[in-house]
Every structure is written in C-alpha cells, then in structure tokens.
Amino acid sequence: MTKPRVVIIGGGFAGLTAARGLRKADVEVTLIDRTNHHLFQPLLYQVATAVLAPSDITSPIRWLLRKNTNTTVLLAEVDAIDPEKQVVHADKGTLTLPYDYLVIASGARHAYFGHDEWEPMAPGLKSLEDALKVRHRFLIAFEEAEKAAPEERDSWLRFVIVGGGPTGVELAGILPDIAHHSMLDDFRNFDPRDTKILLLEGGPRLLTAFEPDLAARALKDLQGLGVDVHLNAIVTRVEKDAVYVGDQRIPTRTVLWAAGNQASPLARTLDAPLDRAGRVLVAPDLSVPGHPHIFVTGDLAAINQENGELVPGVAPAANQMGKLAAKNIKRMLAELPTLKFEYHDKGNLATIGRYRAIAEIGPLKLRGQIAWWFWLFIHLMYLATFRNRVSVLIEWAYSYLTYQRGSRLITEREGDGVSSAGENKMGSIG
Length: 430
Description:
4-stranded parallel sheet, FAD/NAD(P)-binding domain, 25 strands, 10 helices
C-alpha cells in the first residue's frame, strides 16, 4: 500500500516548519515552491538598501530538508487547487500532484488597493526579486542625481515611502544613514545629505500593531533622523516622476511601496470563505471549512486570537501554524481529533535606524539602544542556518564600524521607469 501523500505549497516559515514536523511521519511529503530557496523576509529591507547580499538571508530548501528522507522538493509554480479531486496543478498544467493532505503556505503580496498599475513605478518588498528591484531603484537615483541638471536633481534625491508599518518605518529609518554617511564622499556634483525621505501613512499613526506610546517614540525617532512623516496621507496617484496625496503633487523618481498585503490568489481556487484581503477564514484547527484535509497557514490564513484580533502575519505565527498543521495531520492519521490553533505572541519589534528601535514583549516595553541590540539578536537567531548567522553578523559589524554597505551593486537589467531615458539599460557599476 502507498503511504499517505502530503503536499506542502510554499517553502517559507510555515511550509518549512510543517515539512520538518512531518520528518518522522509515515507519509510521503512533497514540498513545492516557485523558488529554490527559503527567504528570511524580515531582513529583506536590508538587501534592498545594500546592507546585506541576497545570499545572506536565503538558504536552499533542499539543503534545509536534506535530513527529511520522506520529503521531495519540487521547483514549480502552483496554478490551482482542485479540492474535490484532491489535486494540485502546477507549471501551467504540466505538473499534477495528487494529495491526501494539503498544507498551503503560499504567503501574500503587497496590495495596491485596486491600483495594480502603480506597481511598476512603486515596487513593494515581499520577495528577493522585489528587494533587488528596490536596491536598483535607490542606487540608480543617486547615479542619476550625479548627472542631472540642478532643477531636476531634487526629484532624484527625494525618496517617498508609502506605508507606516514595520517595513515602511525600517526603510525610512535606514535611508538617512545611507545618505548622510555611506555615500557622503562618493559624489562630486551634489551633497548626498540633501536627500529627502518622505514617509506617507494613510492612517492617524504609525505602527498600529504597537502600543501608542511606542509608535509615538518611533515617530519621534524618524523625525530626529530628518524623515518627513505625513499621517492621514492617502496616496491617490503614482506617476513616473511624482506621487499624489489628494491633489498635492510630490515630485519624486523613487517611490517604495510598503502599504498593505493581499493574499496569494491560490486562496480563490479553494471555494472557501475569504476576508477582505483575500485570506482564508480557516477553522480553529487551521483547516478549510468543508475540506478537513486542507490546512492553510502563514499569511494566507485569517484566524482570530483570544482577544478577537487577527493573528498577525509574522514569522513566529507562521512557524506555530506550520507546526500545528503537521501535528494535526499526524493526529488525523492516528484517527485522533485535531487541535485548535493557539497563538503565542512572541512580541513586536521594529528598528528605526542605528541605535533606534522599539520592542514590545508582553508587558515589557523597550526603546532606544537596548531595543536595537535586542532586535539584532532576535533576528540573528531566527536566520535559517549557521552560515547565514555568521555572514549577517560580519556584514552588520562591517556596516556598523565603517558606515559602508557591502552590496552596492547595480546589475544590468531592463529599465523599469526610473532612468531619465526611460527604457535604457544600466551597465554594471561597482
């Protein structure tokens, strides 16, 4: 008799944890992902700002699961799921994977609230490709400012970040450090200290997941770095050379998007109830209503905590969901009832440039240097491999001591609307 087949979609935190949880189970596991690597998303912004190289925050999925002798890893992109026939379709229908149990951990993408046409001009930050695109944008901006006429230079040196969540705040906090220190002596036709950073938040305050006093501290820290923060500032249009808040036009050639998430479109193929962001309204045990053999985890799952608030889309929550999905599959194989998901809040962390951070761990609230050091330690420990930890620690030490960035490369790629010529290619610049 064949063993029960478990298919896991996604090699992020939830998918990887689920696969590891089934390592000793008497099942055949297939993990499928559109990339061959596990990505540590919380440090994507540091790849985007040239602090870290892509290899510092990624690890091959096959290597991470090398000891899972019951697991096969496939590089493919899932197109749809047929819950009735219990089949996953991938690679435009050329690959079909039957399953007995399915774990969906395909994550989420940034949301443009009905304006997907803004994405080419305002890239988000969810994948490694996104990070490289953002890195390209902000490095090109300085190169173009060196060539630009004085009347055009301001728009190249004005960076607009849309969204006041952790990603937006962390981007806004690190850019002044780059402009005021890392690139200070690199250019001859302008002073990088003339760089302007604008952070636009559509709501009344930043970092809504944090207590108001910590969010206020983050606002104060950003303003201390020279970041121009605008609250209740809803973006109404994005163009190649400007962003609009209402009717106000803000000239800029670099817009970075950090506002909102939308779930993977796979959720729509499940015939399951969805929330406004497209996440699956899962049952208490993380299964899909009406399909007890399908579990949804990570950013794709919408489930409430005991206090009524949604479980946040953070790495600890994804890990806990992946662990429970694996445990519930093993319990179903043993004909035992499944367990309900109980989220154990590990706290919230956000860094705001050098020596500035906020942390909220239960009743404990940290701010300033101690929070910054705590942020460094926690993120270092959550990296997937020892090699990643050593590499990131070396790069952080180098950046801390020299103010330099170790990965300031502009690689050749098609123009994406940021250069003065529009569609030209940029050569390799060391």
